[in-house]
Amino acid sequence: MVRARVGHFVEAQILKAIGVNYIDESEAIALVDEDNFINKNKFRCPFFCGYENLGEALSRVREGAAMTAEVVFCV
């Protein structure tokens, strides 16, 4: 599993091309851009995405995420 920054679809295309098994569109390595998540339906490689509530989880699945996991932020 390799992380790609949120919204950086070219990174995801490169990762897919080199044959990674999962892509994590991670909010841990970039600020979240709520309007520009990667359209995961265009990729055959499964995506793993975090969420903070059920609505966000359903949104990531609708975008094409294969798996989701709850994200807990410590401040």
UniProtKB/TrEMBL annotation:
GO molecular function terms listed in the Swiss-Prot or TrEMBL record: amine-lyase activity
Entry-linked PROSITE patterns: PDXS_SNZ_2
Stored InterPro entries: Aldolase_TIM (IPR013785), PdxS/SNZ (IPR001852), PdxS/SNZ_N (IPR033755)
Gene3D superfamilies: Aldolase class I (3.20.20.70)
A Pfam family the protein falls into: SOR_SNZ
GO terms, biological process: amino acid metabolic process; pyridoxal phosphate biosynthetic process; pyridoxine biosynthetic process
Domain PdxS/SNZ N-terminal: residue ranges: 1-67
Entries under PANTHER family matching the protein: PYRIDOXAL 5'-PHOSPHATE SYNTHASE SUBUNIT SNZ1-RELATED (PTHR31829), PYRIDOXAL 5'-PHOSPHATE SYNTHASE-LIKE SUBUNIT PDX1.2 (PTHR31829:SF2)
Family under the similarity heading: Belongs to the PdxS/SNZ family.
Protein name in the entry: PdxS/SNZ N-terminal domain-containing protein
Biological source species: Lithocarpus litseifolius
